[in-house]
């Protein structure tokens, strides 16, 4: 199977890329800023690497052109950001960055998936979509929107909701990213989850 993973340079995306690679799948990972980290992941599994920014329309269009040629069966729509702050401490820039990356950017990547008739678009949402936290109010909103979007669209969308996972996003607290990756692999291969539904961890 061919799978494209946005934000495959770190954390859950990185662990997922490695899990697919070990499974014998062909992988394309994207990164936004950390080329070195992306190349290290790619070297481990022989993956294709693409730089893009999900907050930039022309960058998404370029990514779409790459995928139109490479023809993945699955997109893992994973790239995301977090701000650990109460709402009063959020700047407009914080609000824009969270919503443009986690919601608007992710919905545009999902649109690329639909335009290219990708079999499965796995939206990496979060337990925060259902469990409000005053330390993550805009992040919770960004993920709740993606959960509802997945349900509203149905096929080919499925969402996976990790809990707190050990990545730089959480200062490396929580579950192992490899455990999340194993679930994403099952969903990608059609052994877990239903279109328009969600898989909680
Ligand atoms: N960690 C958790 O506890 C947890 C729990 C539930 C859900 N999630 C979700 O899981 C996903 C991955 O999170 P993570 O914890 O693995 O985070 P992470 O380690 O910080 O990795 C985030 C990835 O997204 C990429 N990225 C960020 N902004 C981007 C943009 N504008 N365009 C393209 N790529 C961008 C980063 O690339 P560069 O580094 O190259 O910029 C990086 O590869 C996110 O959607 C997150 O919300 C995480």
Structure summarized in a few sentences:
This protein is an alpha/beta fold and 201 residues long.
Describe this structure in words.
- This protein has helices at 11-22, 35-45, 57-70, 92-115, 137-153, 177-188, and strands at residues 2-5, 26-31, 48-51, 74-77, 120-124, 157-161, 198-200.
- The protein has a seven-stranded parallel beta sheet with strand order 3-2-1-4-5-6-7, with helices on both faces.
- The relative contact order is 0.16.
- It has one domain (2-200): Rossmann fold.
- By secondary structure, it is an alpha/beta fold.
- It has six helices and seven strands.
- It is globular, with a radius of gyration of 15 Å.
- Helix 5 links the parallel strand 5 and strand 6.
- Helix content is 45%, strand content 15%.
Overview features:
Rossmann fold, alpha/beta, binds NADP nicotinamide-adenine-dinucleotide phosphate, 201 residues, 7-stranded parallel beta sheet
What is the count of structural domains? 1
What is the CATH topology descriptor?
Answer: Rossmann fold
Question: Which term fits the overall shape?
Answer: globular
Strand content: 15-25%
According to CATH, what is the class? Alpha Beta
Mean pLDDT: 98
Report the oligomer: single chain
Report the strand count. 7
Q: Find the CATH superfamily.
A: NAD(P)-binding Rossmann-like Domain
Element pattern in H and E: EHEHEHEHEHEHE
Cofactors and ligands: NADP nicotinamide-adenine-dinucleotide phosphate
Characterize the biggest β-sheet.
7 strands, parallel
| Percent of residues in helices | 40-55%
**Secondary structure category:** alpha/beta
Query: Which architecture does the CATH hierarchy give at level 2?
Result: 3-Layer(aba) Sandwich
